[in-house]
From TrEMBL:
It holds the Pfam family Y_phosphatase3. GO terms for molecular function: phosphoprotein phosphatase activity. It comes from Aequoribacter fuscus. InterPro entries: Prot-tyrosine_phosphatase-like (IPR029021), Tyr/Ser_Pase_IphP-type (IPR026893), Tyr_Pase_AS (IPR016130), Tyr_Pase_dom (IPR000387). Residues 95-150 form the Tyrosine specific protein phosphatases domain. This is Protein-tyrosine phosphatase. SUPFAM superfamilies: (Phosphotyrosine protein) phosphatases II (SSF52799).
Length: 226
C-alpha cells in the first residue's frame, strides 16, 4: 500500500517508478473540482485495473475552506480549521475509508495507492487507519504522517494553493497552516475516534467492521516477518 498526492505532474522518471509499483487499485479522495484542476496522468490510469473515486470534501460539515479563508482570517483560525477537518474525517467520512478496507480485505493480491491532492490530510488519515489496524503504535503512525513535512513544503505549496482557490489578498501566514503537516491535525482525528468508540480497536470495528479477524487478515497480507 502506498500514499501520494495528485499524479498530474509526473516526470518520465516518476512514471517509471509508479509503473514499477504495479498498482492494481487506485483510491482517489479528491472532489470533482480537484480532479478537473489536476487530472491524474493518463499513463498511470492506463496501467491501473481499478480506479475508485471517493470524493471527500474536507470542511463540508465544519465550514468550507473557501469560507474560513478570507482577507480577515487569522493563522489560528486556519490552524483550527485543519484540526476540525481531521475530526470530520473520523466522524463524517467513514463510508469512504471503509471502501479502502473492503478492497484490501476482499482482494488478497491488491497493490493499493491512496491519494488526494496533497497526500497529507485525507490520504494521511487513511494511511494512519491502516497502520493502526495493523497494530502499529500511535507514536510510529504519527512519525509516518509527519514524514510529509519532508516532501510537501509550505513555501512551495502556498502559490499552488492560491492558484487552486484564488486566495488573492490572503496573507501567507494564514495559508501556511493549510499546507503544513502538524501533529495536532492527525491527533484531532485520533481524539475523535476515541470519543466515538472509546478505543482505536472499537472505532475500527464500529466504523468499518474491522475486528480481530479482519485485522489479522490485514496483517497477513500487508506485513512481513523480519
Amino acid at each position: 500500500m502506498f500514499r501520494a498526492g495528485h499524479l498530474a505532474d509526473l516526470s518520465l522518471a516518476d512514471l517509471t517508478v509508479v509503473a514499477d509499483l504495479g498498482i492494481s487499485h487506485l483510491y482517489d479522495f479528491r472532489r470533482g473540482f480537484e480532479q478537473e484542476h489536476k487530472p491524474n496522468h493518463p499513463s498511470v490510469l492506463a496501467t491501473v485495473d481499478h480506479v475508485i473515486h471517493l470524493d471527500i470534501t474536507p470542511g463540508n460539515h465544519s465550514g468550507s475552506l473557501e469560507v474560513v479563508t478570507h482577507t480577515g482570517s487569522l493563522p489560528a483560525e486556519t490552524h483550527q480549521f485543519m484540526c476540525d477537518i481531521n475530526r470530520e474525517l473520523a466522524l463524517s467520512h467513514q463510508s469512504s475509508f471503509k471502501r479502502v478496507f473492503e478492497g484490501l480485505l476482499t482482494d488478497p493480491d491488491a497493490i493499493v495507492l491512496v491519494h488526494c491532492a496533497a497526500g497529507k490530510d485525507r490520504t494521511g488519515f487513511a494511511a494512519a487507519l491502516i497502520l493502526l489496524a495493523l497494530g502499529v503504535e500511535l507514536d510510529v503512525v504519527m512519525q509516518d504522517y509527519l514524514l510529509t513535512q519532508r516532501y510537501f513544503l509550505p513555501h512551495e505549496q502556498i502559490p499552488a494553493l492560491r492558484d487552486k482557490y484564488g486566495f488573492d489578498g490572503v496573507k501567507d501566514e494564514v495559508l501556511e497552516p493549510i499546507v503544513a503537516t502538524r501533529r495536532e491535525y492527525l491527533q484531532a482525528g485520533v481524539d475523535a475516534m476515541l470519543e466515538h468508540s472509546g478505543s482505536v480497536e472499537g472505532y475500527l470495528l464500529d466504523a468499518f467492521g474491522v475486528g480481530a479477524v479482519e485485522r489479522q487478515l490485514l496483517s497477513e497480507r500487508l506485513t512481513e516477518t523480519v
